[in-house]
Amino acid sequence: MSTPDQVIEQTKKWINDVVVGCNFCPFAARVVKQQSIHYQVENSNGLKECLTSLMLEVQRLDNNETIETSFLILPNSFNDFDEYLDLVDKAETLLKKNGYEGIYQLASFHPQYLFAGSSATDAANYTNRSVYPMLHLLREESIDKALRHYTSPENIPERNVNFAREKGLVYMKMLRDACI
What does DSSP say about strands 134-139 and 69-73: parallel, antiparallel, or unpaired? Predict the structure, then answer.
């Protein structure tokens, strides 16, 4: 079992090597360089505890504007992708219920990520396949600001899918797995 520090280092490596390295998120390199990402490991395997940790991350972002984005990493829970999707649904509902719709956006990453309608062997899934289940909180205002300076942001998902498929399943899996 990895320590929280090891989990964070593996997550940072995944962000650097996969997310930034493959340019899956063209805005990630800036926040990595600025070191304005907070990483929080939640070792609990309970839904309630994980949702509580998510709201603590929201409070952290509320109270510290130098943190651009936060990753809540769940190394000991939600290994089943369907259970994870249930967590994501409940997390989004909780954010809306607490008045954070339009303030924070929730992005989801999971080791078994599977886009609707895709097969488990589609390399495109690796655009969202992380080293651990995690919830990623982003500031909506920052996203809007970044999108104003990016040509054709609506093409980012298609570009990512094409890149991953061109590299192939073996390459994408190897790249992600090398982060662990």
Answer: antiparallel
Structural domain including 114 reads 4-177
**pLDDT tens for each residue of 120-163:** 999 999 999 999 999 999 999 999 988 888 889 999 999 999 99
Report the share of the chain in percent with pLDDT over 90: 93
Residue of 67, 79, 155, 130 lying closest to 104 (CA atoms): 67
CA dist list (Å): 66 to 9, 96, 137, 145? 21, 23, 14, 16
Written in H, E and C, the secondary structure of 16-65 is: HHHHHCCCCCCCHHHHHHHCCEEEEECCCCCHHHHHHHHHHHHHHHHHCC
Residue 19's identity, in one-letter code, is V
152 and 117 Cβ atoms separated by less than 8 Å: no
- From the list 110, 100, 106, 107, the residue with the least C-alpha distance to 74 is 110
- Residue 99, SS3 per DSSP: coil
- Domain total for the chain? 1
Please give the pLDDT value at position 151: 86
Dist CA 70 CA 106 (whole Å): 10
Q: Which residues are 70's β-sheet partners? A: 38, 137
Span 64-91, average pLDDT: 97
